[in-house]
Amino acid sequence: MAETFNTKALVLNRYIYREYDSRVTVYSPLFGKIDLLARGVQRPGSKLAAHVEPLSLVDLMIVKGKNTDYIGSSIVSDAYASIKCDLAKLPFAGSALFAFNRLIKPEEKDAVLFDLLLDFLDILDQKPERADWLLASWSLKFLSALGYQPELYNCLHCQKRLEPDNNFFSIMRGGIFCSDCSRRELNLEAVDQNNIKMLRLVLSHSLTDLANLRADNKSFDRVNNLVKNLLNFYIKN
After folding, report:
1. Which residues are in the DNA replication/recombination mediator RecO N-terminal domain (predicted)?
2. Per-residue confidence at 21, pLDDT binned at 50, 70, 90?
3. What stretch(es) of the chain map to CATH 2.40.50.140?
4. Of 1, 77, 63, 70, which Cα lies nearest the Cα of 40?
5. Any idea what DSSP says for residue 33?
6. Which of 1, 167, 199, 204 has the fewest C-beta atoms lying within 10 Å of its C-beta?
């Protein structure tokens, strides 16, 4: 009899594999990111199909196959229906799942990363005031958990404590340079005191607290853009 495993997992991606089958990428706190065969889900009337849709939290039974592991059963515990039905929120969820899938290595398990992604989706599901800020906050926390936390307190070059003004962020170097040291660097983006404070808050506060943060639109847009560029840099490299 084939060996089976039960786990909760988030469906990250699904694509057609054969005429009637699909491959499904899921992330489980027990097994990490794994690619599974979903048999017969392309057939009309498949009962399994609705339970292996991307952006679904599922209770999964994995069957150990001879050549490839496959899904024995899957039951949706949270379909995030309000996200999927809201064109204003869906792109933010899609961006998070895409980044997660690209940066997480196969079978690299981390319950903290799993919980962080679920927290993001739960808050997004409740329609936060600024979904773009929520995504930026999750992205920076995600990168930091992967070991890519930017330096936000001391100059990357001289290591001196940053002064409140005249600082510059480097996407490629992952942190901030003071005014004097910035002259030696290329492709820097100016950051003011409020920008730096917001970045630091992301690393010290929960997503729930950050979703309620108040700031001017200019500061939100600036920090969102910085974090987006930082995330894209690691995705591409």
Report:
1. 1-73
2. very high
3. 4-81
4. 70
5. E
6. 1
- Strand-pairing partners, residue 63, are 4, 70
| pLDDT score of 1 | 60
Kindly indicate the confidence band of residue 217, based on its pLDDT and cuts at 50, 70 and 90: very high
- Residue 50, pLDDT score: 95
Which residue intervals of the chain bear CATH 1.20.1440.120? Answer: 128-236
Q: How far apart are CA 231 and CA 198, in angstroms?
A: 17
What whole-number distance in Å separates Cα of residue 146 and Cα of residue 155?
22
Q: Give the pTM.
A: 0.94
The CA–CA distances, whole Å, from 231 to 19, 54, 111, 161 equal 36, 21, 21, 25
Mean per-residue pLDDT over the chain, rounded: 95
CATH number of 4-81: 2.40.50.140
Cα torsion angle, 82, 70, 114, 136, sign: negative
Which residues share a beta bridge with 4?
63
Spatial separation of the C-alpha atoms in residues 81 and 168, rounded to whole Å: 41
Beta-carbon count within 10 A of 229 CB: 12
Range with lowest mean pLDDT among 66-70, 92-96, 188-192: 66-70
Q: Where are the beta strands (DSSP E) in 166-220?
A: 167-170, 175-177, 188-191
DSSP 97-117: HHHHHHHSPBT---HHHHHHH
CA distance 28 to 179: 44
